Amino acid sequence: MGWECQTPNCNFKKVPAHTLIPAVSLREPFWPLTASYTLSRDTHVPFIKLNVSFAHNYRINQFMIPGIDGFITHLIANKTVLEEPGGPDDMFEAIQRNDIGLRRRSLGSGVTKGDSYTRHFLVNYGMPYKFIAATASSSFEGAASPITDTRSRLNWAAKFLLAQEQGKSVEEIAEEWKSKEFNEVLALGYFENQRINYHDDGEYGLGPTIATLSLGAPGTMRIRMKAKHHHGVSSAGIYDNDAPMPGCAAYEARLAMHPELQALQQSDSKAYKIRLKQIPKELKLKRSGQARDAITMTLGHGDIMVMHGAELQKYYEHSVDHTGKLRFALTCRYIDPESLEPQDKPTYEVKPDMGEYDGAKLGVEAMGTE
DNA sequence: CTAAACCAGAGACCTTGTCG
DNA sequence: CGACAAGGTCTCTGGTTTAG
């Protein structure tokens, strides 16, 4: 891989030598990694609730956002997870050795003449993600092992967390999960100083659960309320009529007037529209600026992050930036095949996850036989 | 000690097809 | 008709560091 000139009839290519970054070089001297539970570097604002638990070699930070039905969970991996055969260490090196198809892709809706390209490198496997050009999607059949292994690993993590949250057994959850299991893996590659700006993953046709496996240098994921919902007013000066969320500007006042406003929407749409323009002035809501980051997570090598809940994507947005030289993020989603336009449908069959990864089995023999 | 230099963060602007 | 767009670049601003 390298550079390819896009000018017609120009065959210029520049392919620099690749230097493998070994997984052991990811170990941080002042951040010791052992078979015990790894420490957390996550922070959050007071209105967010944090539950910490420990299971299957992960420190589990579960963040609950008041008013939002769902959760954000960060599973922090320890040394046992990283060094497991086929685990994060092996995956990190395998992705560097094999061309899994990571490329800069054209942004469909460019605002400039000619194409504009993403800063990071990406490739999609399984059900096509509509944000990405259809040509950037490949079948799971014949995909490199880190891709299919990630799908299986994240299916396990999602089932485990949903079971924990709903107080059900993993077997019970597995039954419900089967029909809506992750059917897409989006691989992103980041070099130094490449970041992905604030956005949400709430597009039409996506399941409520999204999971990401981090490989390589740590990434910093920030979660904040969207400005419109935080300020309560759009950039055009129209009041945001969605239910106010705890932690937003003028929360009490907005909460108090919400039922009345909804009733007005039903009874008198004209008066309602006028009211939407009045409220921002009455409450002195400001349009500019952004909400503070509610949660900041340091996603280390081998860590898994799971977001669950459609409301989370509606009210909150997230960004990721990177401190190190090389990081891969492998994200799984469920994409409803019916949500795809005919031309976006895959030309291959997206088969069920054949992997049977079970993180609960890891390290059990070592501990059990002592 | 003062002022220039530096830096990070945020906002404005760029500019165009699509969507409701 | 206005809002929107996993974006990029420039400029301004306020705070901190450094040079003289």
Automatic annotation (TrEMBL):
Residues noted as binding 2-oxoglutarate in the record, renumbered to the chain: Y190, H199, H318
A single GO BP: DNA alkylation repair
Gene Ontology molecular function: broad specificity oxidative DNA demethylase activity; cytosine C-5 DNA demethylase activity; ferrous iron binding
Domain Alpha-ketoglutarate-dependent dioxygenase AlkB-like: 170-325
Bias type Basic and acidic residues, positions: 343-354
Region (Disordered): 343-370
SUPFAM superfamilies attached to this UniProt entry: Clavaminate synthase-like
Matching Gene3D superfamilies: Alpha-ketoglutarate-dependent dioxygenase AlkB-like
Protein name (database record): Alpha-ketoglutarate-dependent dioxygenase AlkB-like domain-containing protein
Native species: Trematosphaeria pertusa
Taxonomic classification: Eukaryota, Fungi, Dikarya, Ascomycota, Pezizomycotina
